[in-house]
Amino acid sequence: MNTFTGLFIIMLVLATGTQLWLTKRQYNRVYAHRGKVPPPFSDNIPLEAHQKAADYTIAKIRFERMDLVFSAIILLFWTFGGGLEFLDTAWRSLEFPPIMTGIGVLLSVFFISNVLELPFSVFHTFVLEQRFGFNHTRPATFIKDILIQSLIALIIGFPLAWVVLWLMERSGQLWWLYVWAVWMGFSIFMMWAYPAVISPLFNKFSPLGDTGLKSRIENLLARTGFKSNGIFVMDGSRRSGHGNAYFTGLGANKRIVFFDTLINTLTPGEIEAVLAHELGHFKRRHIHKRIGAMAGLSLTGLALLGWLIDQEWFYTGLGVRHASDYAALILFMFVMPVFTFFMSPLMLHVTRKHEFEADDYAAKQANPHELIQALVKLYKENAATLTPDPLYSAFHDSHPPAPIRVAHLGNKL
User: Fold this and answer.
1) Other Cβ atoms within 10 Å of 43 Cβ, number
2) Phi and psi at residue 228, to the nearest 5°
3) I need a surface site. Which of 3, 70, 255, 356 has the fewest CB within 10 A?
4) CA–CA separation, 167 and 176 (whole Å)
């Protein structure tokens, strides 16, 4: 066992153990407060709905624990269990050119990983979500989604993998800089293309038909200076009972999307307030800031990989005997989540700060009371816990906990 092997095992145990401990804290906190609706919500959320949210959260925690343990086992299988080494040897025996061998290994890892995760996806959709009345997905739709996702991954993944591996092989010591440029270009292109090209493969997007609501939204867009490529309603109820709203895309391809479940739950004033929040992300340039953060983190990560790729201990320490560009890339993707787990609170703190800023913007552009009412309805309809553990939330939640967020908006009334 080399030093890196020991370090990786220690970090894996620490990360997995910490996550299991956090789930225990969340379980205990939610269960302890199951019997009483918190005061800020007692007038709007009945005890029965609060208890459903608690039970749903507890069920998700149990599922999360299973997934955590399984993910750790699979990671050990790919590394010290010889999974990646076996695949590498099998593809090398075919004597394809190095880049084609690398693409074969990459796609094989992707395919096998998804097959291994499939039982968890089935359980989550058809057992957990079904139990609490959220699942609307039919088995045929579920299978169709998997097939489409796999085809998209193959169509996009094959040429992207080829370009990345070609650059790693041919562009010298600074390959990581060129790969970073390609990755950023690809990411920005997908942000632009996803809403118009990929999303319609899974959902139907219809122009908003409620003329009164549409007029109200257009007035909001006019006074906030937001230009979009349309206002659409998505058939989210086809797969789930959860509701949401978002805007997506870049440049002239931006579009506003409401789940049909949200349209059916909220009043026009509440919908306007929710949209004002989403526009707050645009006006406060949160999307640009997140793209900048992604660019910085990916550049740092690729520069680190540019150094690791020449270190023999990096391969042997993770169960791979033959050094290669594609093996380094796969191993790096495997181990980075383990080593960066404890950075999660810092990164999520930034996203929660952005949510507060978007709420502040919405409170100026719409009625803050309407936004509070909308949030309370969404907490109820989505069975979101009102009593999360603060430490668990710091590691997991991109949005502020419900009591804190509502109290923050209450100060704007």
Assistant:
1) 9
2) -125, 170
3) 3
4) 8
